[in-house]
Write a structure and sequence with these properties.
The chain is α+β, with helices and mostly antiparallel strands and 300 residues long. The chain is built from eight helices and 13 strands. A hairpin with a 2-residue loop joins strand 6 and strand 7.
Length: 300
């Protein structure tokens, strides 16, 4: 424990203990920030069902307030909610970014992100406190059809709910007053919501956050992990952008890649070609404890 709080591994153990108490016939497996409970179905005991708990956001909530019991109660509360319906999906639908490898086993309802198709995808989920419900796209019929919902419905509802959430975000404005980056500035959104990166899909709202000189989409943005959005001027030194991205990737539970995006003619486009880890880390400097590197020209 640190400062009286459980570390992530110990917190995971507490989640499994709560799951075992709720489903004594279940088997728990852990993969990264996910706990999966496999247990017999209620109607047909020969049919095994999976209950997947994404505990990263719950852990951040617990670390923030130290309320283990409250966090576990909120996490397991959705599992006692009424069955999904079209109306409930409309209420809880959200869009978010996920690493493209999320579909390596089960294919979830998602949309290709044209600006970085081999980096991230846009997934549509039903979001509940402590967990998210992904919709199987590779079942026959696709899961959404069970509820009379189309992919267009999921996108429309998810975008509306996402915009409502992003409208509550306030970016942190960081101004550098010392060293090689004196006078530079970046804006960062990292609030533990799980949707900081998805704010990029609401780029008109981001544009409204910017000072007048940068409005009209004269800014670039990066999403190093699912819970971080970084915004900067296009002429920001490459090392500073790389360092900010490296910091997000080092601390985020759901890291993405190093791509920097811009908005052109209403579409999100790739501003930097995606860098390898070695290339980007070579550009990162003291923000992540690395020695200063030679300033390089901005990549387009």
């Amino acid at each position: 424990m640190s400062d009286g709080r459980y570390n992530f591994a110990a917190f995971t153990t507490k989640v499994i203990e709560r799951a075992k108490a709720l489903w004594p016939d279940g088997e728990a497996t852990v993969e990264g920030p996910n706990v999966t409970i496999t247990r017999p179905g209620t109607g047909d005991p020969t049919e095994m069902i999976e209950i997947r708990l994404q505990i990263g956001r719950a852990y951040r909530s617990y670390w923030s307030d130290g309320d283990l019991e409250g966090t576990l109660s909120r996490m397991f509360e959705p599992l006692s909610l009424p069955p999904l319906t079209r109306e409930l999906i409309q209420e809880r639908a959200m869009l978010k970014f996920d690493h493209f490898k999320i579909n390596s086993e089960d294919v979830r309802e998602h949309w290709i992100f044209a600006a970085n198709p081999e980096g991230v995808v846009i997934t549509g989920v039903a979001d509940f406190p402590g967990t998210m419900h992904f919709f199987r796209a590779d079942s026959d019929p696709p899961e959404l059809e069970k509820y009379g919902v189309t992919r267009e419905d999921l996108w429309t509802w998810g975008m509306a709910n996402l915009r409502t959430l992003v409208a509550t975000f306030t970016p942190q404005h960081l101004v550098f007053n010392e060293g090689d980056w004196r006078g530079e500035e970046i804006w960062v959104v990292t609030n533990g919501s799980g949707y900081a990166s998805a704010a990029l899909l609401c780029h008109d709202l981001i544009d409204a956050w910017m000072p007048p000189a940068l409005r009209g989409y004269t800014w670039v943005a990066g999403i190093p992990d699912r819970d971080t959005l970084i915004i900067a001027r296009p002429e920001t030194p490459s090392e500073l952008l790389a360092s900010a991205m490296a910091n997000g990737r080092a601390t985020g539970l759901y890291p993405f890649d190093w791509t920097i995006y811009a908005v052109q003619q209403g579409a999100i486009v790739n501003f930097w070609g995606t860098l390898t880890d070695d290339q980007a880390r070579a550009m990162a400097t003291e923000i992540i404890g690395m020695p200063p590197t030679r300033r390089t020209k901005k990549r387009k």
